[in-house]
Structures are given as C-alpha cells and as structure tokens.
Write a structure and sequence with these properties.
It is built from 29 helices and 15 strands. Strands 4, 5, 6, 7, 8 and 9 form a six-stranded mixed beta sheet that branches. The protein has a four-stranded mixed beta sheet with strand order 13-10-14-15, with helices on both faces. It has a three-stranded antiparallel beta sheet with strand order 1-2-3. Helix 21 packs antiparallel against helix 22 and helix 24 (about 670-675) packs across helix 26. It is α/β, with parallel strands linked by helices.
Length: about 900
Amino acid sequence: MSTWLLERDSFLLELLRLDGRGDYILQDTCRGGIECPFPPLYRCKDCFTTELYCKHCTVDKHREIPLHRIEYWNDGYFSHATLKSLGLRIQLGHACGECCYNPSPAFHDNFVVLDINGVHEVALDFCACELAQSHAIQLLRTRWYPSTTTAPQSAATFRLLHHFHILSFESKASAFEYWQLLARLTNNTGVSPTKDRYEALLRMIKQWRNITLLKRSGLGHDPAGIHAATPGACAVLCPACPQPGKNMPDDWQTAPPEVRWKFALFLAIDANFRLARKNVSSDVVDPGLSRGWSYFVEDREFKSFLNDAGTLPQEKSTCASHSAVNLADTKNARGLAATGVGTVDCAPDNLRRYVNMDYLLFSTLQHTRDIVVLNISYDIACQWSKHIWKRMSSYPSAIHFDRTHKNVVFLVPKFHLPAHIAACQIGFSYNLVKGVGRTDGEAPERGWANINPVATSTREMGPGSRRDTLDDHFGDFNWKKVSNFGISLLRKIKIAIPERDLHVRDFEDFNQTLSHEQLNEVNAWKLSIERWEEDRSQPNPFEITSKPMSQAAVRLSLSQKEASDLEHGVNDSLHSDISPSILISSGMDYEDQQCRLRRDHSALSVHATDLQLAKFQERSNTLQRKIAQWCTVQLLYFPSVARLRASDIESSIDSTQEEKPTNIKLWLPSQIRRETLLPCNDSFSKHEWDLRRAQAFDALDDLRRHLRLRTHLYKFKDAQIRGQRANTRAGIIIKNVEINVSVAAERYRRAWNALSALAPSLARDTWTTELPKLEEGDIRGMGDSAFGESSGNRTLSWIWKARGVATAGIEGEAVLSEALRVEWCRSRARANRWAEEVELLLEEMRRVSAFLAWHAAWWDEQATRRVGLDDASLEGIRGYAKRQAAQRRSMRDVFLTKWSIVPALLRPEATATPV
C-alpha cells in the first residue's frame, strides 16, 4: 500500500484521462471499415479497446454483442447512448447476419433485456416464418430467459440469472437488492429512471431456480420428464453417508457387530425460529414449484397430517426448561404464517412441536429402511424420544417405520448438552455412547449459520417462493460441502490420528496404573461399562451418586422464589429477560471467565504462535462484549455504579494501555460494600450471598476431588514409575492436577472474600464455622501432614471435615473409588471415541470415492435414456450427462490424490482399536 500511495496521483490522472478520447484524440476519421469517411464519435464501455468509431461501424461491431453500453462524444464530453438509438436491430430465429423474410417486431418495438451490466432497451424482431418457434423458445435459444411464455416484453440473460444465483448463495443478496444494483448501473442519477422490471425479475428468478434444479437432478434425461420426480429426487445426496446400492460394500448387511457400527446413519434434528414467514400471500397466489422434490416435505400431505394428528397434546419437558418444548404452543406467532423451519438432516419444514418434528423424522426414515444402525440427535432428545414409538402408532400408516432388528440411538448435540440435567448429560452424550466417534450432532447449526442471513427476505415472501428459495440455498450449501470433502475429510483425519494415539496411550497408562492396585475393581468397571454400552437401560457407570450443594441448585431456588413473588404481585425485575438473581449469577460467571482468561494469558509463552495469540484475542474480545452488555443491564438495578464506572473509565483514559476485559471491575454487591461507601440493596446482597455460599461448596467439592486424585497419583508414581520417560509423563499428569487444585482454591477464596464483605450488612456472624478461611496449609490430601507434623500427631485439614465428604473410612476409600471409576470410564470413552473417529473417517473417504464413481456411471446411463427428439436436443442431453459424469470422476481423482498421504499418517506402530 505504501508504494501505491506514491503513485496515487498518477492513478487519478489516468482515470480522468479515460473520460476523454485518450490515445485517439487526434483521430479524425473512423478506422472501423475500409476508407470509412465518417468521424469517430462513439466508443463502447464494455469492449476491450477504447477506440472511437462512427455510428455505422459501431453498430456493425455489436451485432453479435448487442448488450454493450455505448458512449457518444458530444460537445466535449461523453454522454450515454444506446445501440438501439444508433439503429441496431436484433433478429431472432436466424443466424447472425442472416435475413428474415417475415420479421415480427416486439410489442411497441420496445423490448427490455436485463444483463449484468444494466437494463437495456433494444429493438428486437422475432421470426414469424412458417417454421418459426414460439417467441419464448426463440429467446431461450439466444440464452435470454423470457419474463412470460406468451408475448414476452422483457427477458434476462442466462448469465445474469446465473450471476444472481451464485451471488445470492454467497452474499445472501435479495432480488430487490439486485434489481436496485441493475437500476443504478443503468442510471445512477435519477434523471432517467429505469423501466421497472422488478416483478418480472422475481418471476424469472423463481423459474430459473426451479428449472436449473430439475436439470441438475437429471429429470430432463428421464423419458417421463418432470413427471418422474419423486419426493427428495432433487436433493443433493451426501456421498459420505451410507447409501445402499451406491457406496456400501456388498456384504455390509452381514457385517459382524464390531464392524456394523461404521455403517450407521447419523441424523440431526433441529428447528430454526429465525426463518419465520409473515402471513402474506397464499399457496393459490404463490404456489411452490418443487412439490416436495427437494428438502421441504410436500405441503399438502404435511397439512393433511397436521389436521389428523396435530391436535395431540404437547408433552411438557421433565428435563431442563426447554422453550422449544414447554413454549411450543405459546410462542408469539401473531402475524406469522410459519414460526420457523425444522430440519432432519436435509428435510426441513415448519415449527418444533413434537407432532411436526415426528413427521419430519418419520418422512426421512422412509428413505432409510435398509439402514440397521441409526444415531439420531436432537437438542431435546431426552424428552422427545420417551414416547416416540407410542406416538408413531397414532399417526397414519404411510409414515410408520419398522424398527425391528434396528438399533436406534437417541443423543443430544454436544453444544446443547450442558443445558440438560446431569442424568441426561451422561445418558445422551456423544462423548460417552459407543460407535459415534467424535461426531458432535451440531450439523444443523452450521446450516442455520449459512441460511440465517436469508431470513430478512424470505419472511416477506409468499409460501411457494419461500420454500423454493430455501430449497435452493439448502441445495447449494450441501453441494459446497460435497465439493469440499477432499479437504475437510483430510483435515479431520490429520487431527484425529494424533489425538487417537495420545488418548489411547493415556488410557493404557491409566488403566495399567489402576490394574496394579485395584485389578478386581477395574475388571468390574469394565464389565459395567460394557453392559451399559450394549444395553443403556443398565446402570450408568458414568453417574456420580453424591449430590453436594451447587450453584445451580441455588439459582433454581432463587428463580422459584422470584416466580412465587410474581404470583403475589411482587416484581423487583427492571428488565424483561434478566431478573436480579440472573444478573448476579451472570456476573459471577463472567468473574470466573476473567480468572480463566488471566490464567491462560500467563500460560502463553514468550514465543507464542500467531494462531495462539489470535485465539486468545478472540476469546478476550468475546468476553469484553459480554461484559459490556451485562454492564448495561446492571445500571438498571445499580444506578450508583455509573459513577464508579465513570471513575474507572477516567483512570483507563489516563493510563497508557487500554483496559483489558480481565481487569474490568464488575461491581457486584460484595465489591461495592468492600471498596466503596455507596448503598446497596439488601435483597441483591442476599442473592449474591446465596450464590457465593453455593460457589464455595462447589469449589470445596472440586478441591477435594482433585486432591484425592493427586494423592493417588503421587503414591503410584513413587511405587511404580521407573525411568525418565515414565517419570516425565507422570510429572505432566500431576502438574495438570496441581493446576486444577490451584483453580479450585482460588475460586473458593473469591467466594469467601465476597461472603466476608457481605456478612456485616446481612448480620451473618457464624458463617465462618461452616466455611473457614482457606490457608495455603489447608490445601492437602487426607493422608498428608501439615508442615511440622509427624505421623504421630498428624491432623486432618478442615476441608475434609466440611459438608459433602463421604465418611467411609479415614482415607475416604469409597469416595476415591467412585472418583477413579468415573475418571477411568471417561478416559476409556475418550480413547474409544477417537479410535472410532479415525475408523469412521476412513470409511467416509471410501464411501465418498465409491459414491462419486457410482454417480459418474449413473450420469453415463442418463445420456442415452431419451429418444424420439431432434438431433440437436439429443446432443445437448448427451453432452450435459457426459459433462456431469466427467466432473464426478474428476472430483474423485482429486480427492484420492489429496487422500494419498493418509496411509503414511496411519503408521503401523500408531494404530489403535477401541478398548
């Protein structure tokens, strides 16, 4: 950029020079024809050269390119001119330059063509000879798309429609925005308004989306034509998913159980309430053109299903308070014809009541009858799956699914799982269930991120246009994923192989360690987890039976109290979504995030990589935005904090460095009472007191758990570990546990300091009896002595006497056994999931290659299916099919070339199998 700045003046002068005649300023006569005597006054803005020609030569040069823009040198400057005003006439139905003996001018001799460089008024003649085609066909053969089938008065070029098509996929631009672009390209001053062809453009775009969809799906090659379309026939299939008859091994149905899991089909269900549609237009005025052939289910069948089954009562959730369930019948739908879109992998439709989502799932399962293993994820699967087969029995038989001899597993996506209760977190977790690899179940969320920008335009559309537009975008998103498989699968397996090796080695070391001391217990754990993996109705080995007091329980209690107050007409909330207790608990969460960010920053080395620094900065920016939003709400409840923040801002301005998010004071009630003399509402202090007390108990529980693990690891290291390599590895493990001990201690101290600041105002005098101050000497294991103590006078730290500690023996053997059991099970699960991930990725690579080979052969077959047409049509049909086949083979070859390094990554000494 610095070098360009030196040349900026010359660039500016060159642009201005082009507004004159430039190199042709001294040219007196036109050089477009032999001895042309006319003055050169015209030049084309779209041709490569800037040379000027006379009127006649300009017309001659543009007979085959009639949509270029012309400039006229008039009175010392260039003004706009059109080829029509220069006398150019466009003749359809004949080769360029060939005379038509019966031309038929367009209506009023004023035809409008939309092209990527603007809106053009042209003089157009249709052919009216005896064998002439219809006006619409004549336009199509010129690659102009007619706005109507009868007496068209306008058209759009194929390249404009294709240009908008791709642009809308990438930028999510609407047709209105694109029309505004064309109008401004034509005239950006408003002096000569462009003729309005917006409605015509909308119509042509809708038809173009549909006709290109049918073309890409091969329906033009079927002898039955469009009538051969079936539900889902135009959808882009996933080559990586199991497709019987297309990419599956011949013996896959008889594969043993230890291999069969690789042929499972993963289905992800979700709903998106952003993709709502206003109650405008109707199916009669704006019918859909796809009719269930792509991703939306067929509308009439779906509405008929709702009429029959849609009155079933909605089950209320017994898990977390999912608004998707409990509020499904109460969402604000005023003025909306559709409150959103639901999807099963690639089958979207409206709403998220159980009935709606059931229909989507069972409609999808009709296409998966041969698949034996189905892994189905839904963010409320814990509740939704309870009575799903019972509900199915009440639905029409057309969507019934025979689950005999099938293994159907219901899971919750990883990102959504923390919102569930503990039982769901261990019963529906992708991390713990066998045979799912490292799948996260969040595929729909990635699709929503791509499609959400379209919501602002589709919410104003009629029902048919909306379905067709979303269908088109879903198809493009799928195609981009397909064309990127070569890169994405390679990237995933490059990550998965070293992770597999690491976690398998870690588990083997951990398992060997425990087996030396507790062989019987380890064997019992293994038997227990294998039983649960085969039958999930068995006791869950990942479950922790102890139930200490937690912050979550206190938050629930506070929320219930607020609900009770509301019932009695008491409402302290000043914000519609954030109550006082939520404000305090959120502030404490951000305090934890600040501490975590400070630790991670101090852990960065002096020579941290750019990637590490970038990731840290992204986290820092995210936290700063969250805190800023929280502070805005805080001012509603704590107006006096405004003065404190103003003082903070002044000090940050005086400072030479910008205030970091880790240093922002949150000014919770405890901090206000400790550092200022400002008044603070006692009810807010009471909220923080309850939450801080629970935080202290949570921190103590974590501290004891990590100390138990540290004690065990030290004992094992002293007794069993020999050699530098083994000692180094053990030292790394112990160091990580030490960090966890420090984090838990720091969290307890933050809670204790806050309680200390709040206690005087709340008259809490005896709280230190149950929560003493944590000194450095108190942080030790059950069997560890304090400084100066011997084995004869050793005392137990108070942390082991506080609430929440099991009393089974002086060394807490029962507690230690449970902690080790859960940790052993989780370590085994991590190793197995990564091992499965490598196997799944290898299988997906094989399936992608097989599918592309099958698809290429399928397109070869389509080339010769149509008969009885003219030679030109048959040649076009064959040419398109062969090109599609060649593209699939080319994609397959490129993918295989990229994946050729995988065998080298799979070193024999690094292979690992599930344990």
